[in-house]
Amino acid sequence: MRGLLIVLFMAVAKPVLALSCLPADVVRDYQHAAQDSAEWVIVSGTLQFDASQLPKTDLNNQTLTPPSTDIPARITGKMLSGGGFDSPVDAQIILRARCFGPWCAQPSSDTPYLAFLKKEGARYIAQADPCGNFLHPNPSKAQERQIVRCFKGKRCEPKTR
Predict the structure, then answer these.
(1) pLDDT tops 90 at residue 69
(2) Which residue range forms the structural domain that includes residue 146?
(3) DSSP string computed for 44-62
């Protein structure tokens, strides 16, 4: 009987998959943006958007989950410039919520972020992915100092795993 239960369980069990990500790292994101040919700006500020527009995964039909969803958003705070995070910003942007298979980014509205905004055409895009890259919630002063050091050409090394 026990063998039959094991076979039955194996026949109906769905595979368990896990998303494997490097730990989010503001310095690694800074280095990516600095090496990219696109224009990027970095903002420490509050992101506001309609959270009901975030993608939701249908686990029974994962192929219907879009790889990305663009949501109108607003960011207010301070943009990185030569003096640090000291340039006021209040801008309409696009929040691009990305999905990796069944795992989708779930950023929060009205939350402080250290946001790496990529310029596409005339608009800026805040990319949110399930691994936490390019959009760091509740940034610490230490994270902001790291980015300022990188921007000023000082020591700028990402965390090691």
Answers:
(1) yes
(2) 38-49+65-154
(3) EEEEEE-GGGS----TT-G
